[in-house]
Amino acid sequence: EDQVTQSPEALRLQEGESSSLNCSYTVSGLRGLFWYRQDPGKGPEFLFTLYSAGEEKEKERLKATLTKKESFLHITAPKPEDSATYLCAVHGGTSYGKLTFGQGTILTVHP
Amino acid sequence: NAGVTQTPKFQVLKTGQSMTLQCAQDMNHNSMYWYRQDPGMGLRLIYYSASEGTTDKGEVPNGYNVSRLNKREFSLRLESAAPSQTSVYFCASSEGAANTIYFGEGSWLTVV
Question: Contact, A54 vs A66, CB < 8 A?
Fold first, then answer.
C-alpha cells in the first residue's frame, strides 16, 4: 500500500525566511510525485510533477526535489501570499489513476 | 479557462435524502475522479472513470454511485445520505491515468 507522510504539520515563517517542507513516501513503482497548493475553501492547485530521483522543478519562489524516498519543497524568501496548505501525493504503479495524498503542511508566512 | 466545474458549491441534506453532485471538465481529458477531503484523513478517492464508458471503485466507494455521462461529465450520487458523508467533495480530471490530475473548486456537503 502506498503511503505518504508530510512534515512538519504546520510551519510558521517570517517573510523572507527560507525553509523546506518534507514529503516521505513508500510506493511500489513510482509513476509520479505531485505537489499541490490548497488555499482555504478552494480545490488543490497543481504545482509540480516529479518522475524520477534527482529531478528538480522550479516555479517562482518554489523548488521541488525528489530522491528515492522523499521529496522536498523548498521555499526561498517567502511572502505572505505563499501562505497555504501544501499537499504531496504519489501515483504508484499498482494504483490506476489513484493518488495517495499526505496530510499536508500548513504554511503561514508573517509579514 | 473553466477547467473542472462542480455544482452545487454548498448543500445541506437530511439523513436519508438523495442528491447528485455534477462535474464537467473542458480540457478534453479522458480520466475523471471523485475525491472526498476530511480533516485528519486527507484526500481519498471515491470513484474514478479511466475513460468514457468505464467506472471503477476507489478507496471509499460505499454509499456512492457514479455516472460517466459523456467525455466531459462525471456525476456522483448519494442515494441515501448519512452524517458520515458530511465532507468536501472534489471532482478532478487528467489526460490519462499517469498524467497530472487537476481539481475543481469543491462541493461542501453537510448531512444532518
Answer: yes
Indicate whether A94 pLDDT > 90: no
Q: Which of A69, A79, A78 is closest to A24 using CA atoms?
A: A69
Cβ B103 vs Cβ B6: under 8 Å? no
**In DSSP terms, which residues pair with A57 in a beta bridge?**
A64
Q: Which residue stretches of chain A are H helix?
A: none
Three cell numbers written together for A17? 525566511
In sequence order, which residues have a C-beta less than 8 Å from that of residue A109 and are 6 or more positions away? A12, A13, A14, A15, A78, A79, A80, A81, A82, A83
- Determine the distance in angstroms separating the CA of A35 from the nearest CA of chain B, rounded to an integer: 10
User: Cβ atoms within 10 A of the Cβ of A63, count?
Assistant: 16
Chains A, B: CB pairs < 8 Å? 53
Distance between first and last Cα of chain A: 41
Rounded mean pLDDT, B84-99: 91
Which chain A residue shows the shortest CA-CA distance from B50? Answer: A97
- Judged against a pLDDT cut of 70, whether residue A97 lies above it is answered with no
- Phi and psi at B9, nearest 5°, equal -80, -40
What's the rounded Cα separation, in Å, for the pair A95 and B48? 11
Percentage above 90 pLDDT, chain B: 86
Three cell numbers, residue B78:
448519494
B70 CB burial (10 A radius; 0-12, 13-18, 19+): exposed
